[in-house]
């Protein structure tokens, strides 16, 4: 089985800094004194989201590159409209052997991967699991893609590539041309597009779900998450609708447990995305589902 509980050498930052994330004063008072002091120190050190993000990805040592030309702080709009004419044309398929040193390795695709964190979630995975797989980040905001690629180059990583693409449109053009097996697709905290009339702008549409299911290799996995219950339910309904080939992971592996509503209790990846860090700091629940193709 292509399990996602990846065996990273470093202990996952999410557990290293776990004490920073629950802000309830009543539970704080219940802690033993040394732990209270430690936790208070944690709070003063990292209770702002940007600091937490820095800590999560600290071992990438990317901070020195901030502010280098235009690759530091990039001005971006809150949301883009993926249905506008500039985003609906499928992108050109890259020469895979030019973007990955070994294009036959199993592939992970992260859809909507950048935000302001510059793809550090995927870069972290690529750095810590360098030989075992390739990582493709699909992102609709080109400026952010350029910054992420700059960092990939600076780190000298040859197993990760960020691409400007509207994943809803281009996943089907791109992924079947990749020479190796597709073993994992992640869609983590996608843009919510709250208004009902804007739901058609959400990245997860039936065509994307069908393409993911079709291209995933047997045993391949899909991981979804959102801190917005309505978005999580929407993604869940769409992937649950493919129960003919996708089984939820807790039905296959007793190590994965869910709450009463069927959401995973733990982060199965061991590293959090930037949006996940911000949301957890605000006390939000992260709704997670993980499927395996059978
Ligand atoms: C809320 S951010 C989440 C980023 C990251 N996954 C995280 O959890 O921190 C959503 C990202 O998806 C990108 N995005 C939105 N629609 C997209 C689409 N159709 N194709 C590719 N990327 C998209 C946005 O530009 C943004 O960077």
Topology:
Blueprint: H1 13-16, H2 25-30, H3 33-46, H4 49-56, H5 85-88, H6 96-99, E1 107-111, H7 120-128, E2 134-139, H8 142-155, E3 160-164, H9 167-174, E4 182-188, H10 206-215, E5 216-226, H11 229-240, E6 246-248, H12 274-281, E7 287-293
Parallel strand pairs: 1-2, 1-4, 2-3, 4-5
Antiparallel strand pairs: 5-7, 6-7
In total, the number of strands is 7
Task: Indicate the mean pLDDT.
Answer: 82
**CATH topology (fold) name:** Rossmann fold
Shape: globular
Cα end-to-end separation: 10 Å
Major sheet strand order: 3-2-1-4-5-7-6
Reading off the top of the CATH hierarchy, the class is best stated as Alpha Beta
What is the ordering of alpha helices and beta strands?
HHHHHHEHEHEHEHEHEHE
Looking at CATH, the homologous superfamily is Vaccinia Virus protein VP39
Throw out a few tags for this protein.
294 residues; alpha/beta; Rossmann fold; 7 strands; 34% helix; disordered N terminus; binds S-adenosylmethionine
Structure description:
Keywords: Methyltransferase, S-adenosyl-L-methionine, Transferase, tRNA processing. This is tRNA (guanine(46)-N(7))-methyltransferase. Its EC number is 2.1.1.33. The protein has one domain (77-293): Vaccinia Virus protein VP39 (Rossmann fold), CATH 3.40.50.150. The chain has twelve helices and seven strands. It has helices at 13-16, 25-30, 33-46, 49-56, 85-88, 96-99, 120-128, 142-155, 167-174, 206-215, 229-240, 274-281; strands spanning 107-111, 134-139, 160-164, 182-188, 216-226, 246-248, 287-293. A seven-stranded mixed beta sheet has the order 3-2-1-4-5-7-6, sandwiched between helices. The protein is globular. Mean pLDDT is 82; it is low at 1-32 and 38-46. Residues 82, 111-115, 117, 138-141, 166-168, 188-191, 203, 273-276 line the site of S-adenosylmethionine.
């Amino acid at each position: 089985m292509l399990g996602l509980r990846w065996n990273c050498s470093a202990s996952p930052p999410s557990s290293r800094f776990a004490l920073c994330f629950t802000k309830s004063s009543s539970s704080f008072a219940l802690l033993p004194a040394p732990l209270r002091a430690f936790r208070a120190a944690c709070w003063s050190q990292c209770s702002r989201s940007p600091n937490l993000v820095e800590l999560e990805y600290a071992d990438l040592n990317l901070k020195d590159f901030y502010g280098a030309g235009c690759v530091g702080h990039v001005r971006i709009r809150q949301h883009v409209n993926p249905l506008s004419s500039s985003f609906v044309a499928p992108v050109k398929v890259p020469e895979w052997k030019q973007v990955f040193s070994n294009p036959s390795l199993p592939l992970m695709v992260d859809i909507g991967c950048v935000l302001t964190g510059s793809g550090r979630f995927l870069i972290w995975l690529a750095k810590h699991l360098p030989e075992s797989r390739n990582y493709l980040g699909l992102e609709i905001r080109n400026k952010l893609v350029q910054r992420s690629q700059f960092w990939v180059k600076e780190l000298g990583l040859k197993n990760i590539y960020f691409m400007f693409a509207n994943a809803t449109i281009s996943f089907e053009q791109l992924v079947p041309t990749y020479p190796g097996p597709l073993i994992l697709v992640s869609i983590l905290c996608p843009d919510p597009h709250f208004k009902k009339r804007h739901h058609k702008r959400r990245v997860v549409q039936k065509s994307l779900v069908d393409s993911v299911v079709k291209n995933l290799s047997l045993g391949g996995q899909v991981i979804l998450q959102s801190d917005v219950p309505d978005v999580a339910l929407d993604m869940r309904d769409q992937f649950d609708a493919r129960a003919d080939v996708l089984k939820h992971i807790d039905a296959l592996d007793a190590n994965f447990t869910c709450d009463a509503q069927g959401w995973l209790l733990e982060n199965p990846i061991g590293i959090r995305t930037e949006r996940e860090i911000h949301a957890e700091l605000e006390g939000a629940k992260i709704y997670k589902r993980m499927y395996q193709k059978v």
